[in-house]
Amino acid sequence: MSSVETKEATDSQWWKEAVVYQIYPKSFNDADGDGVGDLRGIERRVDYLDELGVDAVWLCPVYESPQADNGYDISDYRSIHPAYGDMDDWRRLLDALHERDIRLVMDLVVNHTSKEHEWFQRSRRRDGEYEDYYIWRDGSPDEPPNNWESCFGGPAWTYDDEREQWYLHLFDENQPDLNWRNPAVRDSVYEMMEWWLSQGIDGFRMDVINLISKAEDLPDGEPGAGQTGTEHFFNGPNIHEYLREMRDRVLSDDSLLTIGETPGVGVDDAKEYVGSDGSGLSMVFQFEHVTFDHDGHKWNAGNWSLAEFKEVLSKWQTGLEDDGWNSVYLNNHDQPRMVSRFGDDGDYRRESAKLLGTLTHTLQGTPFIYQGEEIGMTNASFASPDDLRDVESLNFIEESLERSDVQSYEDVRDAIEYVGRDNARTPMQWSDDPNAGFTEGEPWIQCNSNYETVNVERARADEDSVLHYYRDLIELRDERDVLVYGEFELLLPDHPAVFAYTRTLGDERGLVVLNFESEPVEFVVPADVALDGLELAIANADAPTVPSDSFELGPYEARVYLTPTQHT
Ligand code: TEU
């Protein structure tokens, strides 16, 4: 049990009332001037996180790694990547967070390792028990064992000359998949998890955890729009057996937060992970609300309607209401900046950033803030492929240039600048100093050119900033159980511009009204919505303290009306 003594400490489900802040260490803050963010850089900013009011930090991978996928390719689970620091730096960060009642959740990447990991190096040499640590198959060097595709494009298999066999990698070829059918692999993973728990961490975010179990005979997938083969490794045959074993062996401390990243799950699948009869995760990251506009694949995303957006989010709100718990996020290190995707990063950047924050902090579930979201950071521009670093985007460009209808980078630039992962990975914007105050050195990836106006220093000094609004949102959610536990009900599902819903917890009621358009719109409150006793709790524009039957909403206007708390 970690040393955090907070009011929720006794309650094993503290994370329901928490707000989690996601840190992408490579881009957060650089203390040693090498242009790469690091642990001491994060430690220097813990007071910033404390002022924001977050309850936990999810730290993306900081482990030893050749960085083929920015740390999601781990070569040693028990040491820190030198550019990020060392275990002493990590322990100081843990202590600094715990001193401020902020918990630390580490990233657990065990679907695959790096090719550089000792396990893989020994496995390719058929070295003793490691021989069967990965998914190897015979076959002629010019014909992969099946038609499965990598999530980053191309076949999911690479032929290894040393072992003279193929190995499976659902991501980059530098990320071979572990063979979870091998009990020795599971033992090694559980020992590693226990080691990190013994360091005092408060939980795990589990990378693509629903991919660890593959169909036994690895049959061909049905070629279609998306990644071929997913029907044979999304929510595979033994996934819940493995997660129950992991829970029983390692995760018996029920105050631990466990978040499974589970691409491809629907509501019913999710219940098998997080429901009362589920395999014991606290929550999952589902992808439906960030892929609903993907027509086969992400690179043609962008054509969506508010009604569709409302439908997918409401389905999860009501779907897990009685059994399970939602995670609530609109962006992360794999997704474009939410204000650019779902809002307006031009004339209404501030208003729409606040509106989207209002949505994530008033839906049922635990909000996840991705670094920079709280100051309204936007997507960036990448004039040349040389400006990019993300393996997925670079592979997409390479594949595209092989197509006859693509002449140059310019032909795919819009797609990259709309959904490319590097949009989320430009350095955190602390000030208008050179390189946004992120580093004294040369940043590993360019800063967003708008850092002179969009930065923490400026936001702190501006009472009307997105940052101050997020602080108020987090404080409000912390004070009002109706926003945490209240029943969700969508209003006017087909309204093309307004996303409105109520939250109800006993006698406590809330009404949330969000205009997703850059034009004013009238909102007529449905007759069955009781308005008595509702008072304005927070809004991103001047608004009447009590709601009327109908009201005019400005561009991207957000309002939250709540009945007074019963115990005041
Ligand atoms: O992401 C898994 C995943 O679903 C993403 O690859 C996503 O589909 C894609 O990036 C959308 O463009 C996890 C990590 O979050 C990601 O950063 C890693 O690259 C990946 O796993 C492999 O570890």
Automatic annotation (TrEMBL):
<dbReference type="InterPro" id="IPR006047">
    <property type="entry name" value="GH13_cat_dom"/>
</dbReference>
<feature type="domain" description="Glycosyl hydrolase family 13 catalytic">
    <location>
        <begin position="22"/>
        <end position="425"/>
    </location>
</feature>
<dbReference type="InterPro" id="IPR013780">
    <property type="entry name" value="Glyco_hydro_b"/>
</dbReference>
<keyword id="KW-0326">Glycosidase</keyword>
<dbReference type="InterPro" id="IPR017853">
    <property type="entry name" value="GH"/>
</dbReference>
<protein>
    <submittedName>
        <fullName>Oligo-1,6-glucosidase</fullName>
    </submittedName>
</protein>
<dbReference type="GO" id="GO:0009313">
    <property type="term" value="P:oligosaccharide catabolic process"/>
</dbReference>
<dbReference type="InterPro" id="IPR032091">
    <property type="entry name" value="Malt_amylase-like_C"/>
</dbReference>
<dbReference type="Pfam" id="PF16657">
    <property type="entry name" value="Malt_amylase_C"/>
</dbReference>
<dbReference type="GO" id="GO:0004556">
    <property type="term" value="F:alpha-amylase activity"/>
</dbReference>
<dbReference type="InterPro" id="IPR045857">
    <property type="entry name" value="O16G_dom_2"/>
</dbReference>
<dbReference type="Pfam" id="PF00128">
    <property type="entry name" value="Alpha-amylase"/>
</dbReference>
<keyword id="KW-0378">Hydrolase</keyword>
<comment type="similarity">
    <text>Belongs to the glycosyl hydrolase 13 family.</text>
</comment>
